[in-house]
Amino acid sequence: MKYYIYIRVSTEKQEDSGLGIEAQSHACMQWIMNNGGSTVDGVEEFIDVVTGTDRKRKELEERPKLLEALSLLKEGDVLIVHKRERMGRDPYVNCMIERIIEKKKAKLVSAIGEMEGDEPHNVLMRRIMDAFAEYEALLISTRTKAALSRKKARGERVGHVPYGQRLATDGMLEAHPDEAKILKIMYTYRVHEKFSFRLIADRLNEAGYRNRDGGIWTHGATSRVYINYEKLFSGVLALRGVA
Predict the structure, then answer these.
(1) In 3-state terms, what secondary structure has residue 117?
(2) Which fold has domain 2-126?
(3) What residue ranges do the domains of the chain occupy?
(4) What confidence category does residue 242 fall into, taking pLDDT thresholds of 50, 70 and 90?
């Protein structure tokens, strides 16, 4: 048996509502320990950072780490998510994922124990939960679009400035020398040294590097910055001044 932990965070809600990378990882590891597992068992984490609210028909395309975890599942393995909504907010997609896991004779669980089991009432409750999660996502999307439209109407800049870049005087993005240097260090540690994100954070702090807000680097912040960078630039040092 092997445990696969799947974590999904949004770049717009990285730490909101206790759903940050570290919080999800801790909850899933706690489930393993509480259900007869241990840290010596095979445990692997898969983290997807998505931009904004999940979009129908693109949910799986935008989450390559989930697809990778599903492809690795074997009979008896367990895929763990913090909450069911972390798996996805589209009821149809969630049914597809459950079917894939069922065919592999593996098991899907949530760390908070949301209506597990094949009993009809549990299946019904899971479908209802998925429908409400989708409804919530649609509401958030609608409110976000309305807020962005108001900002644009006022001539305000919208959108997050990616780590490693900054706004130039003409309003365009340009490489941020200090942040680009840290990204290059992260890339070297991750790709060439095969360091964990926790070890990368420790090394950055030991060297005196600080995050954008001037605080110390944490495992969650390090993984989030790197994964988002990897997603935006396909893992290649494409930022001017980084290579």
Answers:
(1) coil
(2) Rossmann fold (3.40.50)
(3) 2-126, 165-233
(4) very low
